[in-house]
Design brief:
Largest sheet: 3 strands, antiparallel
Order of helices and strands: EEEH
Number of strands: 3
Oligomer: single chain
Structural class: alpha+beta
Helix content: 10-25%
Distance between the termini: 42 Å
Strand order of the largest sheet: 2-1-3
C-alpha cells in the first residue's frame, strides 16, 4: 500500500491522515500536479494566474 504524505495548511505539520491530529483541519497533498506536454488547460491556468493570455 502506498502512503502519500499530507500537510496541514493551518499548523503546517505533516501527517499521513486526511485530518490533522493537532487542529482537526483537512490536510492537503504535498505533491505537485503531474506535468503533461499536451496540457489542454494551461492557457486557462495562465489566464487565472497572470490575468491575460501569454
Amino acid at each position: 500500500m502506498k502512503s502519500i504524505i499530507k500537510k496541514c495548511p493551518e499548523c503546517r505539520s505533516y501527517t499521513l491522515e486526511s485530518t490533522c491530529k493537532k487542529c482537526g483541519t483537512q490536510t492537503v497533498s504535498t505533491l505537485p500536479p503531474r506535468f503533461s506536454p499536451e496540457d489542454r488547460f494551461a492557457k486557462y491556468r495562465i489566464k487565472v494566474l497572470y490575468g491575460k493570455d501569454r
